[in-house]
């Protein structure tokens, strides 16, 4: 080879250097689109990808996210109730840090930092459709179209706002089934978006929240199935304390006539009502004739509850299918991070309950499925303790944005790549505040580790500790607090709880703004 002069070598070197730099400069930073499909009260037991032994329902479209992405088996919420969970989702913070403690008297301070605001600032188009439940109007969205309060299942009035709309929004009346309408609105927005910019779409279903009213096409979906009973349906709460015994959330006693469809919903049109009655009336008549009592009556209520609850989920699953199909058809699937989750877990008869609120497993844990081609391996499973505290940080990280230090969770992006950091959390702080309140669940806080839970119930009516060993007692039926063989574990957990409360700056006592007058609302 002919020897080269120094200037020639220099040119060659600069040339090789220039090529990748130029390529980098020409490529826009990779910013995936983000779709969050977030349902309300969707128990992980009712997602077939999670493999509940009762095999309650097939959810092929939600399962597709598990098949093509990552399933998280231990996603925990720090306050298991609708509004607070949504405030945590937006802010990446605990209730005491974002100021939204409960559904009864909290109002979200929309001036605080949220991930949609940061993504909007970074050039994302942002929109939210469906359940909001934070009292103040949404901020950080180019377009929002929300259900007021809890919203209704049929023919819902909604409120929309954002760019080009009145500053305080406007009320729009819709005809149809809410889950379908929210999907239509979301897809319409996607079709009309600016295709040169990345987008954040938050599709927040009302379903399957109480009163569990399915789409008319799904009435009878289970062909009058008698569902397998959870082992703890007839729980007598022995082995636990006053809060567990005195709650008001049992299928046996708390469910009312509207819940059980012995009284039809008010919002149906005459035509819709005919279809509704054709399904429920003969079954309700047979129920009246049977004059059931005791365990037979409870079993009837349990089956009716599951027919309705799971019927609602069928429409949610179809919604997920429609969104995924749109992403496929529009060629967007490869560049879009899709998340399915719910604001908390839910009881489907375990401990005789419906509803949520407790630090116990069914309500503490929520579904989390993430598909992000190129990052998460198809069919992968993660068992680390993650939380909806981490969602805001994850979205910002995925979009290449700086995560504000005030956020209290951590990005899940390394976990998606199966590279869990060595210092990933080994414990999680939990705190529920809504008492006095619907369902009479005492205030409590505690620490959760992969094996144990230490919890303190407090307030005017409760003042006691419990300790659960999930390895020996997976259904959390027997507190071992104070037992000598757990003395060392108990001491460690107390120390960890104190450390977390200090690190997270949890106010003690609870701030004045958490004070609640006895509730008027029936459902929350
Ligand atoms: Ca909820």
Record keyword descriptors for this entry.
524 residues; alpha/beta; 13 helices; globular; binds calcium ion
At a glance:
The protein is of the alpha/beta class and 524 residues long.
Description:
This protein is an alpha/beta fold and 524 residues long. Helix content is 31%, strand content 17%. The protein has helices spanning 6-26, 60-68, 82-91, 95-98, 115-121, 178-192, 242-246, 270-290, 294-329, 361-364, 391-398, 413-416, 487-503, and strands spanning 33-39, 70-76, 125-131, 143-147, 157-162, 170-173, 199-204, 336-342, 365-371, 380-382, 386-387, 428-432, 443-448, 452-459, 462-469. Strands 1, 2, 3, 4, 5, 6, 7, 8, 9, 10 and 11 form an eleven-stranded mixed beta sheet that branches. Strand 5 (157-162) and strand 6 (170-173) form a beta hairpin. It starts with 5 loop residues before the first helix and ends in a 21-residue tail after the last helix. The model is unreliable at 9-28 (pLDDT under 50). Bound molecules: calcium ion (CA).
What is the average per-residue confidence, as pLDDT, rounded to a whole number?
94
* Biggest β-sheet description: 11 strands, mixed
Q: Could you state the oligomeric state of the chains shown?
A: single chain
Uncertain regions spanning at least 5 consecutive residues = 9-28
Helices and strands, in order, run as HEHEHHHEEEEHEHHHEHEEEHHEEEEH
Radius of gyration, CA atoms, in whole angstroms? 25 Å
Ligand list? calcium ion
- Total of DSSP H or I helical runs spanning 4+ residues: 13
Strand % is 15-25%
- By secondary-structure content and strand pairing, the structural class works out as alpha/beta
Structural shape: globular
* SS elements, strand count: 15
State the share of residues found in helices, binned by percent. Answer: 25-40%
Q: What's the end-to-end separation, in Å?
A: 80 Å
């Amino acid at each position: 080879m002919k020897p080269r002069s120094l200037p020639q070598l220099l040119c060659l070197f600069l040339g090789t250097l220039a090529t990748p730099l130029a390529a980098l400069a020409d490529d826009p930073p990779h910013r995936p689109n983000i779709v969050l499909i977030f349902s309300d009260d969707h128990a992980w037991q009712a997602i077939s990808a999670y493999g509940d032994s009762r095999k309650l329902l097939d959810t092929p479209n939600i399962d597709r996210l598990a098949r093509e992405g990552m399933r998280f088996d231990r996603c925990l919420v720090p306050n298991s109730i609708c509004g607070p969970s949504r405030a945590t989702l937006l802010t990446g913070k605990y209730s005491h840090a974002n100021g939204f403690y409960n559904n009864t008297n909290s109002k979200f301070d929309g001036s605080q930092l949220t991930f949609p605001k940061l993504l909007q600032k970074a050039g994302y188009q942002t929109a939210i459709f469906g359940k909001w439940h934070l009292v103040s109007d949404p901020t950080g969205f180019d377009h929002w179209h929300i259900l007021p309060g809890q919203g209704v299942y049929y023919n819902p009035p909604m409120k929309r706002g954002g760019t080009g709309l009145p500053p305080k929004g406007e009320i729009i009346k819709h005809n149809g089934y809410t889950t379908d309408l929210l999907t239509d609105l979301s897809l319409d927005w996607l079709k009309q978006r600016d295709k040169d910019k990345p987008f954040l779409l938050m599709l927040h279903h009302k379903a399957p929240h109480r009163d569990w009213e399915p789409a008319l096409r799904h009435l009878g979906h289970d062909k009058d199935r008698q569902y397998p009973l959870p082992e703890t349906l007839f729980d007598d709460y022995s082995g636990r304390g006053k809060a567990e015994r005195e709650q008001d959330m049992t299928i046996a006693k708390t469910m009312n006539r509207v819940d059980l469809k012995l009284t039809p919903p008010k919002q149906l049109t005459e035509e819709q009502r005919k279809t509704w009655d054709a399904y429920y009336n003969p079954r309700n008549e047979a129920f009246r004739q049977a004059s059931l009592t005791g365990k037979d009556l409870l079993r009837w209520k349990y089956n009716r509850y599951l027919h309705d609850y799971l019927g609602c989920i069928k429409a949610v699953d179809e919604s997920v299918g429609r969104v995924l199909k749109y992403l496929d058809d529009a060629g967007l699937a490869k560049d879009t991070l899709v998340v399915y989750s719910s604001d908390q877990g839910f009881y489907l008869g375990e401990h005789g309950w419906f509803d949520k609120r407790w630090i116990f497993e069914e309500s503490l844990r929520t579904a989390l499925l993430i598909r992000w081609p190129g990052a998460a391996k198809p069919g992968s499973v993660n068992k680390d303790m993650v939380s909806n505290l981490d969602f805001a940080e994850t979205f910002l990280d995925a979009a290449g944005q700086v995560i504000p230090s005030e956020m209290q969770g951590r990005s899940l992006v390394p976990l998606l790549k199966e590279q869990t950091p060595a210092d990933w959390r080994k414990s999680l702080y939990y705190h529920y505040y809504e008492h006095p309140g619907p369902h009479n669940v005492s205030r409590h806080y505690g620490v959760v580790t992969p094996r144990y839970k230490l919890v303190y119930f407090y307030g005017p009516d409760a003042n006691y500790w419990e300790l659960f060993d999930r390895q020996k007692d997976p259904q959390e039926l027997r507190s071992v607090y104070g037992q000598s063989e757990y003395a060392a574990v108990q001491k460690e957990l107390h120390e960890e709880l104190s450390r977390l409360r200090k690190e997270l700056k949890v106010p003690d006592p609870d701030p004045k703004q958490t004070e609640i007058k006895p509730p008027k609302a029936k459902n929350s």
